[in-house]
Amino acid sequence: MARSPTIDYHLSDRDANVHVGVWDNSLEPVLTVEPGEVVRFECRDAANGALDVQSTLDNVLKKPSNGHPLTGPVRIEGASPGDVLTVDLLSFQHKGFGTTYFYPGERDAGLLPMDFDTGGLHVWDLEGDVGRFVDGIEVPLDPFPGVIGVAPATPGEHSTIPPRRVGGNLDVKHLTAGSTAYLPVEVDGALFSIGDCHGAQGDGEVCVTGIEAPMWVTVKFDVISDRDLSAPQFSTTGPYSPFAADEPMYATTGIADELMVATREAVRAMIVHLTDRHGLSRAEAYMLCSVAVDLKINQVVDAPNWTVGAYLPERIFPDVD
Amino acid sequence: MARSPTIDYHLSDRDANVHVGVWDNSLEPVLTVEPGEVVRFECRDAANGALDVQSTLDNVLKKPSNGHPLTGPVRIEGASPGDVLTVDLLSFQHKGFGTTYFYPGERDAGLLPMDFDTGGLHVWDLEGDVGRFVDGIEVPLDPFPGVIGVAPATPGEHSTIPPRRVGGNLDVKHLTAGSTAYLPVEVDGALFSIGDCHGAQGDGEVCVTGIEAPMWVTVKFDVISDRDLSAPQFSTTGPYSPFAADEPMYATTGIADELMVATREAVRAMIVHLTDRHGLSRAEAYMLCSVAVDLKINQVVDAPNWTVGAYLPERIFPDVD
User: Which CATH number fits domain A9-235: 1.20.1250.20, 1.20.810.10, 2.60.40.420, 2.60.120.580?
Assistant: First the structure.
């Protein structure tokens, strides 16, 4: 275990340090740092504090937030358009609980809104590295920021929902502690913000939420000038799978001439697998897919049909060692 | 290490045991087996023997084959439409060499035909569990059948190129030794065929070939009747990553409102990474992506932009431990 880094600055999640729902390069920096400095960010959850351990589906149906609350922006001295901001993700600390939820179909969010007339909610107890689902199912935690990015060059307000060239709502589950994100800088000082932390997420985040949780994130900034990136990149020490080693997986496939259709088919088959073989409700199955099932593009060249796989780590179930 | 299974039947790759380029439920079975029996198949490579260790790009440009040579079909007694054929993949043995190749853009094959005016070829020495690329790069082998399937119910000839509900050219890299494939049966006796073995492949198989290699494959058949599958499924003990454990990865992302576009962008960025940072030619980089870079759907819900990641295991390079 590496020693804890020296923290140069702390940023709380008080209103003055948080912007909600938009990227905007005219926002005043809440902090200015030098390259090499370390900041510990307090980040609200995606619901902006509207859900707690006693919340019910009714609270979800009121749609708890409109866009992500992000802590920042932080100005990094010396970062200029054309540079790359490197963000070393040093550590994460959750606060003991999290939520996974989805909306009824009419909200048109998530991968399968057409399949679900009602919404769903699971409130997770988070204890150390484990999140508790139903029926003894335990999902290993490996936290990361759903949203990590810098301000876009285009003036005005931009929704935090879609990711962009400068990052944002990437939802890359491998941006865990020990990883480094590389973000293309488009404005002076980069104007970095972070939030929407997930305790765990499957590749795809299919129901539209991971394990949404308020969290502390400690990062170190640097600036490099010899690289021209078309989109964010990152390095990671893994793990690729939740347990970081060989493990039994069960996988469904979707085969179709559009990747999105193949993805939907693979996830639908996994929902059937989870309900028929593991006794979950359909809503539970959808949420478990969103936090623990990984989507891979098995092949994208066997025209006209592509293969997408949905991978379930079987060790999350109590009856499997 | 498990003991070798008892082999009930051997099938050589002689012409009488091979059908090329088509699935057709009127093909006569070359063998009939009972559930529980084990067959060792000799499988030709995708080029149907047209390439060897002395082949050059000229041989590739003549397009070495039209569709996959498959060993089979094997009739499994008792398998009926509506059943599921289980295929335990027991072992694989290559024959010491393999090829990876792609065609010039006008052939319109692979993920990025528009980016490559010329084709490419790499002939691999296969030694035990390792395939040798250029510059000391070694790709770990974990063989699987690119094509594994049963005959479709629809009469007539069907190209082996696209995968279907009954399987076929799935190109799922995780169908390795120790895995089990579940295939929906559509005709009496299932009529199973197998071939197109790959020594290794990245998720995506982006240049259109993996490490194409003639190989022996040993499988055990069974039939189950209590499951209704919309597409093939499988269970696997991994590994998810080539080294089956935490390892350093470098990843590029593609962000776009179509998954195919995002996939192309991620792979293009990885090709730039491999040429700029590792000194490969563009053709080498494209082929290395096809055999060792994994594509994941990071998120498919942050409308209107999806995130696709391309993951490079850094341990394949000689300068990384």
Answer: 2.60.120.580
| Phi-psi domain of B30 (left: phi exceeds 0; alpha: psi -120 through 50; beta: other) | alpha
User: A312 with A273: CB under 8 angstroms?
Assistant: yes
Q: What SS3 state is found at B49?
A: coil
Cα-Cα-Cα-Cα dihedral sign, residues B244, B247, B252, B254: positive
Which residues in chain A have their CB less than 8 angstroms from residue B160's CB?
none
Instruction: Give the residue from chain B lying closest to A204, CA to CA.
Output: B299
Q: How far apart are CA B77 and CA B1, in angstroms?
A: 31
The one-letter amino acid at A190: A
Domains of chain B by residue range: 9-235, 249-316
ipTM of the complex: 0.82
Full 3-state SS string of B184-229: ECCCCCCCEEEEEEECCCCCECCCCCCCECCEEEEEEEEEECCCCC
Cα–Cα distance, A59 to A33 (Å, whole number): 38
A-to-B residue pairs, Cβ atoms closer than 8 angstroms: 254
Of A216, A242, A217, A214, nearest in space to A98 by CA: A214
The DSSP code for B4 is P
Half-sphere exposure of B205 (CA within 13 A, CB side): 30
Vertex B172: Cα angle to B106 and B226 (nearest 5)? 135
Q: Which among A166, A173, A301 is the top mutation candidate for probing chain B, defined by the most B β-carbons within 10 Å of its own β-carbon?
A: A301
What's the Rg (C-alpha) of chain B?
19
Substitution target from A237, A299, A312 for chain B, most B beta carbons within 10 A: A299
pLDDT in tens, chain B (321 residues): 456 779 999 999 999 999 999 999 999 999 999 999 999 999 999 999 999 999 999 999 887 777 899 999 999 999 999 999 999 999 999 999 999 999 888 777 888 888 888 899 999 999 998 999 888 888 889 899 999 999 999 999 999 999 999 999 999 888 889 889 999 999 999 999 999 999 998 888 888 899 999 999 999 999 999 888 888 888 877 555 555 456 677 888 899 999 999 999 999 999 999 999 889 999 899 988 888 888 989 898 888 889 998 888 887 888 644
Q: Taking each helix axis from N to C terminus, what angle separates B282-292 and B259-278, rounded to the nearest 10 degrees?
A: 120
Task: Give 3-state DSSP helix, strand, coil % of chain A, rounded to 5.
Answer: 15, 35, 50
- Strand, helix or coil at B179? coil
**Do the strands B69-76 and B31-33 form a parallel or antiparallel pair, or are they unpaired?**
parallel
State how far the Cα of B177 lies from the Cα of B89, in Å rounded to an integer. Answer: 5
pTM of the prediction? 0.88
Euclidean distance between CA atoms B222 and B220, whole angstroms: 7
A67 touches chain B (CB under 8 A): no
Identity of the residue in A164, A251, A303 whose CB atom sits nearest the CB atom of B162:
A303
Token pair of A118 as six digits = 């009602």
Fold of A249-316: Endonuclease I-creI (3.10.28)
